[in-house]
């Protein structure tokens, strides 16, 4: 988990509320990612960003939004439009996305979101 | 589309015995494959990756993986299991996400239990 921090560790949300999950990295990585993890479903990509001020939708972007104003930070907002937001959310980063070199991703410790 | 499959939801092995966690892949072009491990309520940790070259890849914590092109498999192995190896293991493949960028597509995970 070194180099990537996520906060808070646990988050409780009432229905109809938006919440923002924090992700910060000090690895000087260009690319950052958000995944959602549900039991038995593995990891599913929500959003990713190759560079500051640019981000792309992943496989399950509906009901989520992101920003990338700084290289180190990639916050995720879970909006009230997300119908089933209770899950474990993981942030990751890698050196880059493009080109022929294959880089592994480094993961943060995760945030567990529960809707009350 | 690139994909990986982990055919076993759970693998049980006695401490000291060899362990194998299975992964098969489906890709167009050259496969770039990864293994990650996740301990409870934690982020994923990178174990190893296959890009090209030797079919036996050595990674962290004594793990290795065998790439088999004819069987489209990338099984994770360890000669002697430890109780501390008990965790959730994910296989992943690099997949093209457009505009010259790539992402990781994960399997659903295999829970490994090492019995004392």
Your description of this structure?
The complex is a heterodimer of chains A (116) and B (116). Helices cover 0% and strands 48% of the residues of chain A. By secondary structure, chain A is mostly beta strands. By secondary structure, chain B is mostly beta strands. Chain B has no helices and 12 strands. The radius of gyration of chain B is 14 Å and the shape is globular. The termini of chain B are far apart. The mean pLDDT of chain B is 93. Classes of the chains: A mainly beta (116), B mainly beta (116).
Major beta sheet of chain B, specifics? 6 strands, mixed
Envelope shape of chain B: globular
Q: Into which percent range does the helicity of residues of chain B fall?
A: under 10%
Rg over CA atoms of chain A: 13 Å
Oligomerization category of the chains in this entry: heterodimer
Greatest interface: A-B, 28 and 25 residues
Query: How many helices of chain A in DSSP terms?
Result: 0
- Beta-strand level of the residues of chain B, as a percent range? over 45%
Topology:
The complex is a heterodimer of chains A (116) and B (116).
Chain A: E1 4-7, E2 10-13, E3 19-25, E4 31-37, E5 43-51, E6 54-57, E7 64-66, E8 76-78, E9 87-94, E10 106-107, E11 111-115
Parallel strand pairs in A: 2-11
Antiparallel strand pairs in A: 1-3, 3-8, 4-5, 4-9, 5-6, 7-8, 9-10, 9-11
Chain B: E1 3-5, E2 10-14, E3 19-21, E4 24-26, E5 33-38, E6 44-50, E7 56-58, E8 64-68, E9 73-78, E10 87-98, E11 101-106, E12 110-115
Parallel strand pairs in B: 2-12
Antiparallel strand pairs in B: 1-4, 3-9, 5-6, 5-10, 7-8, 8-9, 10-11, 10-12
In short:
The complex is a heterodimer of chains A (116) and B (116). By secondary structure, chain A is mainly β.
Which characteristics define this entry?
heterodimer, A: 116 residues, mainly beta, 7-stranded mixed beta sheet, 4-stranded antiparallel beta sheet, 0% helix, 48% strand, B: 116 residues, 12 strands, 56% strand
